[in-house]
Amino acid sequence: MSLINRLETSAADFDARLGTLLDREDAASLAIEERVREIVASVRRDGDAAVLDLTRSLDRIRCDSVAELEVPAERLRSALENLSPAPRRALEFAERRIRRYAEQQKESGWLSEDEFGNQLGQRVTPLDRVGVYVPGGRAAYPSSVLMNIVPARVAGVGEIIMVVPAPDGIINDLVLAAAALAGVDRVFTVGGAQAVAALAFGTDTIPPVDKIVGPGNAYVAGAKRQVFGRVGIDSIAGPSEVAIYTDGSLDPDWAALDLFAQAEHDELAQSILICPDTAYLDRVEAAMERLIADMPRAEIIRASLQGRGALIQCRDQAEGLSVVNRIAPEHLELAVAEPEALLPEVRHAGAIFMGHHSPEAFGDYCAGPNHVLPTSGTARFSSPLGVYDFQKRSSIIHCSQRGGQALAGPARALAEAEGLDAHARSAAVRGEPE
Amino acid sequence: MSLINRLETSAADFDARLGTLLDREDAASLAIEERVREIVASVRRDGDAAVLDLTRSLDRIRCDSVAELEVPAERLRSALENLSPAPRRALEFAERRIRRYAEQQKESGWLSEDEFGNQLGQRVTPLDRVGVYVPGGRAAYPSSVLMNIVPARVAGVGEIIMVVPAPDGIINDLVLAAAALAGVDRVFTVGGAQAVAALAFGTDTIPPVDKIVGPGNAYVAGAKRQVFGRVGIDSIAGPSEVAIYTDGSLDPDWAALDLFAQAEHDELAQSILICPDTAYLDRVEAAMERLIADMPRAEIIRASLQGRGALIQCRDQAEGLSVVNRIAPEHLELAVAEPEALLPEVRHAGAIFMGHHSPEAFGDYCAGPNHVLPTSGTARFSSPLGVYDFQKRSSIIHCSQRGGQALAGPARALAEAEGLDAHARSAAVRGEPE
User: Fold this and answer.
1) Confidence label for B434 from pLDDT (cuts 50, 70 and 90)
2) Residue A211: closest CA among chain B residues belongs to which residue?
3) A348 among the known binding-site residues?
4) How many CB atoms lie within 10 A of CB B72?
5) Do A430 and B383 touch (CB under 8 A)?
6) Is A115 part of the annotated catalytic residue set?
7) Which domains does chain B have, with CATH numbers?
8) Considering all CA atoms of chain B, what is the largest pairwise distance in Å, rounded to the nearest integer?
9) In this structure, which of A162, A375, B400, B424 has its CB flanked by the most CB atoms within 10 Å?
10) Which of A293-297, B22-26, B130-134, B360-364 has the lowest mean pLDDT?
C-alpha cells in the first residue's frame, strides 16, 4: 500500500474522490452527548460537590475540596523560574511574538457626528472574565496555552481562568510555565465537561466566565456546544489540515516534512499537496518513503496520510488554486517563488504561509499569528482566534435635540408601516418642537 | 393588578426577584427540534423536491418547481418604484444612514515586517455568498431587511440570497422594496426550517451559502442551530429588551412610551426602568396607566409589562448602573442630562442610547447602527450585527530566508518539548544555512 493517495483533477472521478477525502461529517456520538448532558446538569445543580466528585473519579485525584484543586500562584511562578534556559528562551521568544502580533489586532472604538449633530459610534470593551481550557495528559501543549491566553490578555480581559485536567495528579510543568508567562490569573486542575460546566455556571469556588476558549476532547467539545448561548465559545475545532500549493520549486524533502508535520498530529489530520507537475509529485512521494523511517510518530503519520492525505496533480495554477478554495484549508502553504502573485486568487484559508521559508510549523509556535484557526472548511466564513474574540462592541447613539427632530419623522413613518404604534409615538414625541 | 412590577434594590428578596424576571431559560421544545431534524434531513437528501413539497403544504402555495418560487428581479424593482413617496423617502433615509454607519465598520488588512525581515499580517476578505432569512406573514419588517442586507453589501459579499415565506402566496411589498433598495441579488419565497436547510446544503435551484443571518421563529432558530458549523450563523435572537436608567430627568410620558415601544414587540419582550427616585417612578407608572388606553397593541403591552417588565428603585446611580451591568441589556437608554459621565460605568449593553432625545425606536429604524443586537445577557460577550460579520480574516506569514533561520531554533525547541518531531524537522531544515 502506498504511503499517500494520488489524485488527478483530470480523472472523471476526481470530484467524488476529493469529496470523500474532505468529508468532515462528525458523527458526534449520542452516548457522549447524553453523558455530557448529565455532567453539565449535575455541575449546574450541585456545584463544587459535583466537580469534586467527578474529578476524584475521572482523574483519580485525592482531595477534599475544589479549593485544593487550584494551583497556587507560587507554583505557577516557580514552574516558570525553574525552567531550563533553552525552553525558557524559546517560550519567551514565542510569547513576545504572539503578543506583538496580537497588539496589532486590538480594535478601538470610534465616534462620528452626522449632519444633524447626532453622535454615532462604536464602543469597544474587553470581556470581564474568560475561561481557557487546556488539555492535560499526553497532549499537553504549552504553545496552545500561549495562543489562547495572550490575545485575551492583550484585549484587556479582566480575569483569565485556566482549567487543565491533571490525571493522577500529573501536570506538565511547561504548561504551567507558559500560563505564568502569558499572564493567567487563576488555574484549576479540573478537566472534561465538568470543567466547562463549572466555568459556564460558576460554583462556590470556580467563578463563572463570559466566554470559554481552547481545544479539548469530544466531552469538552460537547459541553462547549451545550453551554453556548449562556457563555460565548470559540469554534469547535476539527482535525488539523494543511494544503500546500507548489509549482514544483519547493525542495521535495521539505515538502515531505511539511506534510508529515501535519499528519503527525493524529490519524484524522489532513495533508494535501497540489502541483501541476507529476514528476515533482513522484519526487515528493519518494522523499516521503525515504524520510518516514526517521519519524518517531511514523505510525500516526502513515494512518493519517493513507486515510486522508493526497498528492493532487492539477492541470495548471488556476485549477490548483480553485482546488485550494474548495478545500478552504486551515493552513495553506503557497510554496512558489513569488507567492504574492497568487494571493488574489486565494479566497479561503485560515493562515497563508508564503514562499519556501514559511513552514506551517512556524505558525504553530512562534511566527506570531495565532495557531487557533478555522478547520473543516469553516475558513469560508470564520477567522483565526484573535484579540477581537475577547473584545465586544456596543453601538453609541447620542441624538441632539435638533438631530432627534430630524430622525423622528422617518422613524415614525417606518414604525407605522410595520404596525408598531408605540414605536411611532416614542419617536414622534422627540420630533415635537419644545 | 398593576400594569408593571415594582422592585426595590433595598428589599431582601431583590436579587431573587430580579433573577426570576431575567430568567431566560429557553425550554426549546424537543418536539420542534425533532421536526426540524426531519426537515433538514429531507431537504439535504431530496433538495428541490423536499423544498417544493414542504412549501406547498406549509405555506399553501401552488407551484410546480422551486424556480417558480424565485421572485423575478423585475418584481423587486417594481415594488420599490411603486412605493408611495412618504414610505419610500423614509426607507431611503434609513438605508442611507445604515449604509454610512456600516461603511465606518469596514475592516481592512495590514502587513508589518519584523526585525528579521519576515512579513506578518492579516488579510480581510468578504464572504462569497450569504443567506438572509426574513420572516413573512404578519411580522414582516422592512427595517430588518435593511439591517441584515446593508452590512453584507458594504462588506462586499459576492452574492446575497434572501428567503422569505409567502404564506398563501401573500408577500409584503415593503419587504420586497427594502430588499431591492438594500441590493439583494436573489429572493426565494421559501421559509421555515426548509429555507435554512436549502441555504446550508444548496439544492439544484437554491445555491448553498457560507453564512445565514436573520431572525425567525422556533423552527428557523432550531434549523440555524443544526446547520451551524457547515455554515456560519448570526446569534440566535431571544426576546427584545430595553433597560432605561434615568435620574428622573426624562419626561415621564416619554419614559412610558419608550417602555411601551419595547413591550409591544411580544409578550416576552422586557422593559425595565431604573431610577433612585420613588416619586419619579410613581409618575412614570401613572403616565403608563394613562397612556396605555391609546395603544392599539395594549393587550400585548400589558402582558409583557406584567410578566417581564419592572420599575426598579435603586439607592443611587452607582447601584443603578450595577443593576444595568447585571442585566447586560440589548438596548440601554441613559436618560440623564450628561450621559457621557455614566458611560465608563457601563460594561455590557448591545446599544447605548444617550440622553433624552435618543429613544430606542430611532435605533430600530434609522439612527444608523444595526438593530440586530445581542439579547438575553449575551452583550457580556457579543456584539451588534455588523460589516465584520460578513468579512473574515486570514493570517499572512511570509518569512525571508534569514527570517526563517531566526524562527527555526525556537520553533524546533518548542516542537521537541511537545514531542512533535516532524514539526521540529520541518522547522529545522529552514534553519540550515544554504
Assistant:
1) low
2) B381
3) no
4) 10
5) no
6) no
7) 5-26+239-367 (3.40.50.1980), 30-233 (3.40.50.1980), 399-431 (no CATH)
8) 86
9) A162
10) B22-26
Question: What is the average pLDDT across A70-81?
Answer: 97
A340-351: per-residue pLDDT in tens?
A: 999 999 999 999
Strand order in the sheet with B351-354: A110-113, A119-126, A391-398, B351-354, B331-335, B241-246, B270-275, B310-313, B5-8
Residue with cell 440555524: B224
Annotated binding residue A5: no
* Residue A367, φ and ψ in degrees, nearest 5: -65, -35
Q: Which helix (H) or strand (E) holds A427?
A: helix A421-428
Instruction: Work out the minimum CA distance from A52 to partner chain B, whole angstroms.
Output: 26
A365 with B410: Cβ contact below 8 A: yes
Dump pLDDT digits (tens) for A365-383: 999 999 999 999 999 999 9
Q: Are B349 and A394 in contact (CB under 8 A)?
A: yes
Task: Identify the residue whose cell numbers are 491533571.
Answer: A166
Which of A358-372, B24-38, B288-302 shows the lowest mean pLDDT across its residues? Answer: B24-38
What residues of chain A lie within 8 A of the CB of B253, using their CB? 429
Q: Which of A242, A302, A393 to mutate to test the interface with B (most CBs of B within 10 A)?
A: A393
Mean pLDDT in residue range A84-104? 97
Q: Radius of gyration of chain B from Cα atoms?
A: 26
> For residue A434, what pLDDT band results from cuts at 50, 70 and 90?
low
- Work out whether strand B110-113 and strand B119-126 pair parallel, antiparallel, or are unpaired: antiparallel
